[in-house]
Write a structure and sequence with these properties.
The protein has 438 residues and is α+β, with helices and mostly antiparallel strands. The protein has three domains: 48 residues, no CATH class; 187 residues, Endonuclease Chain A (Endonuclease, Chain A); 189 residues, Endonuclease, Chain A (2-Layer Sandwich). 42% of the residues lie in helices and 22% in strands. It has a 15-stranded mixed sheet, sandwiched between helices. A two-stranded antiparallel ribbon has the order 1-2. Strands 9-15 form a two-stranded parallel sheet. α12 links the parallel β12 and β13. 42% of the residues are buried.
Length: 438
Amino acid sequence: MRYVCIKIHFYPVNLHPQVNRVYKRWIYTGRRAGFLLALMLVALLAGAQTAGRSDSTVMAFLDSLQIPVTENNALTLLKSGQEKFDALFDDIAAATHHVHLEYFNIRNDSITNRLFDLLALKVQQGVKVRVIFDAFGNMSNNKPLKKKHLKALRERGIAIEEFDPIRFPYLNHISHRDHRKIAIVDGRTGYIGGINIADYYLDGMPDIGEWRDMHVRIEGAAVDCLQEIFMAMWMQITGEAIDSGDYCRGNTTAGDGRQIAIVDRVPHTMNRQMREVYIRSMNAAQSKIQIVNAYFIPGKAIRKALKRAIERGVVVEIMISAKSDVKFTPDGVFYVAHQLMKKGADVYVYNDGFHHSKVMTVDDCFSAIGSVNFDARSFNHDYEVCAFIFDEETAAELNCIFEDDKIHSTKMIPEEWKKRSPWKRFTGWLANLLSPLL
């Protein structure tokens, strides 16, 4: 019996584990016909894999949900509060038609005062300015916008509205908060991510140090999607219908080829689609998932999707923050991260300040950046928005940031977990138990 031993040197990236095994093994055949059949099998599997890349799978799912994947966008990753505010202020300064802002938290501090002074100047120049902020987000910070501030802003020509004002009984207003952080300038430039309007994105906070976060600046057709989200919320709050013909610019030629889908979450009407898109992304992953999230207490469906990915041989890396602005949450985050670590996830605890970013990358080919925390509130209650970016260059840039952040992190291992006190482990278990309410 004659045997032919062939090693395949061409090795595509992002292959399904089954195809990986075919490529990685030596192929043995007893006859020349068997050798040819083996090559044909590898070619067929490689072709099928190209058609079944994770990004293609997720884009097809978005299409089934009637969520457009917009073409030909340009984007810039804004990797700090300083970068975000510098870019946003420059764009507002150049505005000629309108500025729309929708934020969970606009803190009454120096960066906000600078912003409102600039907006008032633009009003004098004939620019229409509309601002939405969330009442609970405002109440939860230590320098809220008060009625006298809102009155003064309106007198300066800034149309500013509070989403769901907190009134007695307060518990009626806890659910369904507006947690988005978006901006649209002249219908041509859009911002989306996790950065609110507050000084601590620049200066940090005494108890937690530097406040790390991320935003994205977009030009192109995806900006119209952000505009539609803002106009719908403005209509919901004020009853005023904004004419989309004047504000949606159809920017199909403004970008450089990036594909972006804006995934929105609206309570009652679009309850589950955000969670389902994340789950479908995890289910489609073939080689790697990276997640950065400070409030990482996902429900059972997300946890199961991550465990399935680990079982398929996908590398799952999760970065959480050692410090937080919410006292009870970190213990629950550590508990869940430890459970996934035992299943095979690599968990990194970021130590150099508070890592508030909300980022996921899959297979180095697409990414998700937005306002979504991996917790029950974001997936089950709040208004949220996220940009799914189908672009390998952006994914590579986020991957480099993740690798750099590992330098400032401690990898969670059993020995590190055992260092946590029994009380901390108990509060983590309790926070996990109460996670649907957090």
